[in-house]
Amino acid sequence: MQLSTIHVKVSGVTDNIRHIRRAKDYTQAYMAQHLDISQTTYSNIESGSVALTLDRFLAIAQILDVDTKELLAVPMPENNFPAVDQSFED
Asked: How far is residue 68's CA from residue 73's CA, in Å, rounded to a whole number?
């Protein structure tokens, strides 16, 4: 199996890509042009309709000028842990 055929299947990755792309004010057409694919194909990548290959994932990170860890990051919900009673009695 070639490295380029491994698919990135991490929940939220395409949401992170979309969020960062929009924050940088990049259009889908801009991303597609730099990836040498159609805008429709790029849109399908962001929507999850088309598998995101590792090669494309790495290229997207490079275009967005972010570390791949940033694209893989899963936001931590607030109050993720139960409250801890910090009152100790001796």
From this structure: 9
Tokens, residue 21: 């792309």
Each residue's pLDDT tens digit, 27-73: 999 999 999 999 999 999 998 888 888 999 999 999 999 999 999 88
Rounded to 10 degrees, the C-alpha dihedral 7/68/55/1 comes to -50
Q: Where are the domains of the chain?
A: 3-71
Cα 31 from Cα 23, distance rounded (Å): 13
CB 60 within 8 A of CB 35: yes
pTM over 0.70? The answer is yes
Cβ density class 13-40: b for 16+ within 10 Å, e for less: bbebbeebbeeeeeebeebbeebebeee
Query: Which residue has 């792309």 as its token pair?
Result: 21
| Domain spanning 3-71, CATH class | mainly alpha
